[in-house]
Write a structure and sequence with these properties.
The protein is α+β, with helices and mostly antiparallel strands and about 300 residues long. It has helices at about 20-45, 45-75, 85-115, 125-150, 150-180, 185-215, 225-230, 265-280, 295-300, and strands spanning about 1-5, 235-250, 250-260, 285-290. The chain folds into two domains: about 10-215, Alpha-lytic protease prodomain-like, CATH 1.20.1510.10; about 225-300, 2-Layer Sandwich (Alpha-Beta Plaits). The chain has nine helices and four strands, in the order E-H-H-H-H-H-H-H-E-E-H-E-H. Strand 2 (about 235-250) and strand 3 (about 250-260) form a beta hairpin. Keywords: Ion transport, Membrane, Transmembrane, Transmembrane helix, Transport.
Length: about 300
């Protein structure tokens, strides 16, 4: 007999609580992106243009993140979409990672080309746009910082804003060096520095997104340990077909078959197993099948 423990209505995802913050970050980013493109083309600065291109991916990424949240909030679970659209947020994070990877690769390529013949860059406009960028990104950074701890989707947007903040600081240095010394290599060097700063964070974000999409167990949970704790419950003979995965950030779910002895009380075992998952692993949504040892042996014939 199968027993399910969990809310009848799917909980709101973590990022849904920060939708206004994400929208504000979108408006700030869009406004500053336009400014950077204008200044970048007028000054011929690779540092500014690379940051503007990076900002363009941010705008697209934040827009996708917003769309994913809206879909998750408005699309309720149905008979065909039993988990709603929560996974859309994870896809958004992966798209952001791919976009950032592409931008970093382009900047590295362009910087290598410019090292051969660095163009003249006007330092003062670069310096001013960098100061404006730091202020804009600092506001967006504060808006998204708390939500990034709870949502992978928001963390993708947060990492992009963080990269932009560092990039603006790099552009500030580039503008100052160019203005004071006229050294043309400052601009491509900063461009390379921005790309190298972004890449490790992109890889981490992509890896975390793929773990969820491939339904790996959350990194914080030892599945063998979960099985051991469930088997330690009185009356439990065996635990098999145990699966633990993440639906979206902050929403872990589990399923398992629990074989019990003949004289075991099924409801008592079920409640004890639910307490173990909820108290020790913060898994509130679990589908647990309590079955006899004879029924458990039939599971051995499953091919996957």
């Amino acid at each position: 007999m199968a027993h399910q423990h969990g809310p009848s209505v799917e909980p709101a995802s973590a990022s849904g609580r920060y939708i206004k913050h994400l929208a504000a970050a979108f408006v700030i980013g869009f406004s500053f992106m336009v400014l950077e493109f204008v200044v970048g083309f007028l000054t011929n600065s690779l540092a500014v243009l690379s940051d503007a291109a990076h900002m363009l991916t941010d705008i697209f990424g934040v827009g996708v993140a917003l769309l994913a949240i809206v879909l998750a909030k408005r699309t309720t679970p149905t008979s065909t979409r039993t988990f709603g659209m929560y996974r859309g947020e994870v896809f958004s994070a992966l798209i952001n990672a791919l976009l950032l990877f592409g931008v970093a690769g382009f900047v590295l390529f362009e910087a290598i080309r410019r090292f051969q013949d660095p163009p003249e860059v006007s330092g003062l406009p670069v310096l001013l746009v960098a100061l404006a960028g730091m202020a804009a990104n600092a506001v967006a950074f504060v808006l998204l910082r708390t939500g990034a701890k709870e949502s992978l989707n928001l963390r993708g947007a947060y990492l992009e804003v963080l990269a932009d903040l560092v990039a603006s600081f790099g552009v500030l240095i580039s503008g100052a060096v160019t203005l004071l010394t006229g050294w043309r290599y400052a601009d491509p060097i900063v461009g390379v520095g921005i790309a190298l700063f972004v890449l490790p964070r992109v890889i981490t974000l992509a890896r975390r997104s793929l773990r969820i999409l491939l339904q790996h167990a959350p990194e914080r949970i030892d599945v063998d340990e979960v099985a051991t704790k469930l088997e330690a419950i009185g009356g439990v003979n065996d635990v098999h077909d145990l699966h633990v995965w993440t639906l979206t950030s902050g929403m872990e779910v589990a399923s398992a078959h629990i074989a019990v002895d003949k004289d075991a009380h099924g409801t008592g075992v079920l409640r004890a197993a639910q307490r173990v998952l909820a108290d020790d692993y913060h898994i509130e949504h679990a589908t647990l099948q309590i079955e006899s040892c004879d029924a458990a042996r039939r599971c051995d014939h499953l091919t996957w």
